[in-house]
Amino acid sequence: xxxxxxxxxxxxxxxxxxxxxxxxxxxxxxxxxxxxxxxxxxxxxxxxxxxxxxxxxxxxxxxxxxxxxxxxxxxxxxxxxxxxxxxxxxxxxxxxxxxxxxxxxxxxxxxxxxxxxxxxxxxxxxxxxxxxxxxxxxxxxxxxxxxxxxxxxxxxxxxxxxxxxxxxxxxxxxxxxxxxxxxxxxxxxxxxxxxxxxxxxxxxxxxxxxxxxxxxxxxxxxxxxxxxxxx
Length: 231
Fold this sequence. Notes:
This protein is of the alpha+beta class. Helices cover 50% and strands 13% of the residues.
């Protein structure tokens, strides 16, 4: 009795080829754009894979003209950029950058406003102190007019006080002979007096209380006696 299996010759090359062929489903990347680089794939591995799959499926892939047009690649690239290339982290970074720039601009404006307000409050505080000292300054001015400050310790104290107030920006104004200006003078007396020849405007003839300014701030207008020119 002859064994049928032993009588059939076995081709070793065929057996090796059958063992070398992979089994299981085959996955072919048909995307025209490389998902890692975003570049259009050439006529290399990507197109070879598409052609092989078409041959296996028995499909006749026919394209009008000379092949896939550039417009197809451009449409695919635009879709990739819109759907895949714009990572959510990129949008988040742009939003955070805009928020940071807005906060920085608000901080700069806030700092400028604080610096301006600090200087304004400082000047206001000094002006309030000077207003409280006006009666003392008026007494010193009257003492000088009557010759009571020709010398002595009180004269030295008055000079130091004037020097200190000058350092913080206080200025005294109002002199006999000035043209009367209602913006900086307050006429408490209207007298008959001989004015200098050629004077054609109302003139200050006596300063009852001098005026004071500090920077652009008017502390007090000068209180004066005035005279009109003779017509």
